[in-house]
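Progress note, sequence design subtask.
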């Protein structure tokens, strides 16, 4: 993107040559358009070397020596401020936790990111649409069933998570999730009871205006007859499907939105890092 530069990766479980192969070829996103190779113990992407660490303890990662200022903590293990704070021992300036944290402040781009201030060294980063209905998978007998043969229901921590970033919705939202046997992409189905009546066309108009205005680049808008794979590698956090919604009446509506959480999320991480850096 040109906004940030990746200078280091820590992965204690796979070797450098495996990283090269996995970056070059992806079963979902396809083959990389750039160049990638291993050279002098580093991962070289489009001519730029990336330092590789293989440490299990984040305190042992020499972030500063690699030139890393911001760390994206994506293991799902070091999710509290105390545990994620180990990265700071390696001279990183700030840490962004990629999963809900019990105690780190949570920020969602376009929702509450402007509340961030540079006194915070550790934050949690989530995407709002993902908080709404994407699952935080529980361990149960159902999750051990064949994923390719079944649609599997799962619980979600959506309501509590949304309440953290939008206090006005705290206690007003609930949800559930399904694991569906597709290789990628997700869909959000939001059913709303409206306090003020709104026609379906008016809702579409507001969504389109938002996608072209204050939420440009974050919210997409689609009018074509689309299916899930049409949003593969889509950088929006969510794309409103104008033709998929259902209105029982002007006070009870169902809204549908698609998203590539991997690709969209990665772009929002870059956005948050850029915003945080602007406050240094």
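Output:
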């Amino acid at each position: 993107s040109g906004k940030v530069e990746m200078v280091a990766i820590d992965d204690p479980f796979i070797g450098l040559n495996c990283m090269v192969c996995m970056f070059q070829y992806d079963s979902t996103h396809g083959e990389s358009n750039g160049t990638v190779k291993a050279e002098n113990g580093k991962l070289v992407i489009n001519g730029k070397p990336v330092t590789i660490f293989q440490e299990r303890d984040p305190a042992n990662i020499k972030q500063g020596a690699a030139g890393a200022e911001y760390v994206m903590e994506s293991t799902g293990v070091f999710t509290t401020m105390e545990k994620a704070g180990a990265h700071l021992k390696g001279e990183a300036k700030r840490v962004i936790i990629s999963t809900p944290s019990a105690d780190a402040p949570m920020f969602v781009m376009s929702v509450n990111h402007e509340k961030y201030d540079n006194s915070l060294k550790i934050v949690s980063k989530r995407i709002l649409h993902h908080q709404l209905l994407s699952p935080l998978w529980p361990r149960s007998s159902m999750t051990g069933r064949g994923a390719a043969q079944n649609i599997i229901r799962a619980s979600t921590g959506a309501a509590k998570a949304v309440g953290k970033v939008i206090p006005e919705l705290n206690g007003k939202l609930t949800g559930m999730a399904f694991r569906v046997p597709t290789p990628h992409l997700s869909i959000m189905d939001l059913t709303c009871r409206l306090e003020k009546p709104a026609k379906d066309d008016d809702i579409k108009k507001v969504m389109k205006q938002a996608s072209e205005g204050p939420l440009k680049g974050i919210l997409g808008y689609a009018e074509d007859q689309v299916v899930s794979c049409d949003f593969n590698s889509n950088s929006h956090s969510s794309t409103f499907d104008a033709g998929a919604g259902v209105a029982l009446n002007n006070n009870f509506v169902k809204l549908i939105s698609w998203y590539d959480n991997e690709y969209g999320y990665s772009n929002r991480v870059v956005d948050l890092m850029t915003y945080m850096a602007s406050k240094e």
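The chain is about 20% helix and 25% strand. Work on this subtask will continue into the next period as scheduled.
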